[in-house]
């Protein structure tokens, strides 16, 4: 027979599961509504993007995808007009009219940093090149196209991040990983060759621009072993493997973008906990 403590504990877990189920239902209804609205919008607009939630590296260049889905692949567009706007911004990001850039209303924030590609405009490609990406560039952009073959608009949610692959050094059985620029603030995890978490020591230093440098050490390490240093924030994950051979370290890094919802992950964890509790009592 279950003890009173087990009953109280599992009653609390049951409440958590119920609230989690309600949250999932609300999220499902919200996402479903958004999906339906998106489908309706797509059917009424011929303007699309290969990525509506791109992540741009601070200080680098970003290409915001925008193109017109033509009625015929062989069709060549004429009378093409393109306008790029940013939510909450006075003036325009970029404008193209009558076969030439029309930048009279361009906001000063984007002067000299944006361009289209006229050679491909006739094919429906109105993608915008944004140079020297800054944190202030983050936001919602609207690309609008008008042409002889139709038109429409699409929203693009640009997010900014700083990320760099770490470099490794080995000294006195201490393995050090150093990465010069990360934003938003990252966390660091060390793993051994079997995927087990190891205890490392990490120092994060923030500069005046809000960019973090990372120095993380692991000790002691074994010769001929491979270790993985994972640096991640809510946008970017860097997986770096360091293989020690004698006094040398060989390294490789794979960087991916993270789009997982922490809310959904938390809800999933609650549900799994509830299921384990029910299983334990039975």
What does this structure look like?
Helices cover 23% and strands 39% of the residues. The chain contains 3 helices and 20 strands. The strands form 5 sheets. It has a 6-stranded mixed sheet with strand order 2-11-10-5-6-7, with no helix packed on it. A hairpin with a 2-residue loop joins β19 (236-245) and β20 (248-257). The longest helix has 41 residues, at 4-44. It is elongated and about 70 Å long. Residues 31-44 and 260-282 have low confidence and may be disordered.
What class, by secondary structure content?
Answer: alpha+beta
Global geometry: elongated
Strand-residue fraction? 35-45%
Spans where pLDDT lies below 50 across 5 or more residues: 31-44, 260-282
Task: Spell out the helices and strands N to C.
Answer: HEEEEEEEEHEEEEEEEEEEEEH
Strand order of the largest sheet: 2-11-10-5-6-7
Mean pLDDT: 82
Largest sheet descriptor:
6 strands, mixed
Portion in helices: 10-25%
Rg, Å, rounded: 25 Å
Count up the helices: 3
User: How many strands?
Assistant: 20
What is the end-to-end distance? 10 Å
Entry summary:
The protein contains 3 helices and 20 strands.
Q: What's the topology here?
A:
Blueprint: H1 4-44, E1 47-48, E2 55-57, E3 62-64, E4 67-68, E5 81-86, E6 94-97, E7 100-101, E8 114-115, H2 118-121, E9 128-130, E10 139-147, E11 150-161, E12 167-171, E13 174-182, E14 187-191, E15 197-198, E16 201-206, E17 212-218, E18 226-232, E19 236-245, E20 248-257, H3 262-281
Helix pairs in contact: 1-3
């Amino acid at each position: 027979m279950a003890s009173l403590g087990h009953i109280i504990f599992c009653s609390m877990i049951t409440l958590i599961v119920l609230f989690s189920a309600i949250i999932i239902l609300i999220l499902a209804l919200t996402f479903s509504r958004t999906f339906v609205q998106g489908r309706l919008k797509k059917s009424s607009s011929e303007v699309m993007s290969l990525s509506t939630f791109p992540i741009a590296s601070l200080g680098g260049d970003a290409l915001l995808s925008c193109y017109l889905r033509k009625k015929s692949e062989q069709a060549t567009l004429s009378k093409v007009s393109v306008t790029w706007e940013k939510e909450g911004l006075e003036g325009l990001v970029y404008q193209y009219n009558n076969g030439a850039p029309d930048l009279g209303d361009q906001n000063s924030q984007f002067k000299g940093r944006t361009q289209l590609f006229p050679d491909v405009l006739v094919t429906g490609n109105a993608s915008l090149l944004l140079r020297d990406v800054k944190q202030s560039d983050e936001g919602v952009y609207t690309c609008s196209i008008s042409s002889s073959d139709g038109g429409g608009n699409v929203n693009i949610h640009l997010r900014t991040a700083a990320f760099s692959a770490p470099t490794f050094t080995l000294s006195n059985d201490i393995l050090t990983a150093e990465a010069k620029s990360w934003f938003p603030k990252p966390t660091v995890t060390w793993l051994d060759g079997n995927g087990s978490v190891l205890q490392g020591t990490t120092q994060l230093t923030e500069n005046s621009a809000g960019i973090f440098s990372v120095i993380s050490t692991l000790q002691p390490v074994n010769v001929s072993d491979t270790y993985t240093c994972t640096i991640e924030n809510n946008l970017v994950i860097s997986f770096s493997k360091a293989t020690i051979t004698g006094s040398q370290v060989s390294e490789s890094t794979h960087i991916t973008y993270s789009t997982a919802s922490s809310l959904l992950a938390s809800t999933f964890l609650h549900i799994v906990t509830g299921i384990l509790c029910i299983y334990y009592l039975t």
